[in-house]
Design goal:
With 143 residues, the chain is mainly β. The chain contains no helices and 10 strands.
Length: 143
């Protein structure tokens, strides 16, 4: 097999995915990010919640079949600093967990790559509390 002498860099402007979960969504998985025709690279998946208890989200990579790739807890009031909640924390990056599908660029930065037209999906393990929200923002680029 010959070596790749032409590196493949992202070629189009960044595109992001946004999704907000409310009580009525229950545990239904939603598309968080849809990769482009040549695949995509995800740099961050930020999570915030107005819930006063921790929420837990499951992340799935879907290429026609959904594969569970991680389950991450979102601490209470994460990213909701204006809530005057004494334990409020900044938004968390869900890519900070150390799992096999993330590529480690250096000791602190992880990325995730999706194949052509694959989706990154997320679903809460239990419904978000009534009147509260959990929001996921995915920052990525297409190849």
């Amino acid at each position: 097999m010959t070596a790749n002498t032409s590196p493949n860099f992202t070629t189009v402007p960044p595109h992001n995915g946004y999704q907000t979960f409310v009580n009525g969504d229950s545990t239904t998985a939603k598309n968080l990010f849809v990769a482009g025709a040549n695949g995509s690279q995800i740099h961050a998946i930020n999570a915030t919640t107005s819930d006063t208890v921790a929420d837990t989200i499951q992340l799935f990579q879907n290429n026609g079949t959904s594969y569970l790739i991680d389950t991450v807890q979102i601490p209470a009031s994460s990213g909701n600093l204006a809530a005057a909640h004494p334990s409020a924390t900044p938004p968390i990056n869900l890519l900070s967990a150390d799992i096999a599908s993330y590529k480690i660029l250096n000791s602190t930065q992880r990325i995730m790559q999706l194949g052509a037209n694959e989706t990154l999906q997320g679903g809460m393990t239990t419904a978000v509390a009534s009147g509260k929200t959990a929001t996921i923002v995915v920052y990525g680029e297409d190849f």
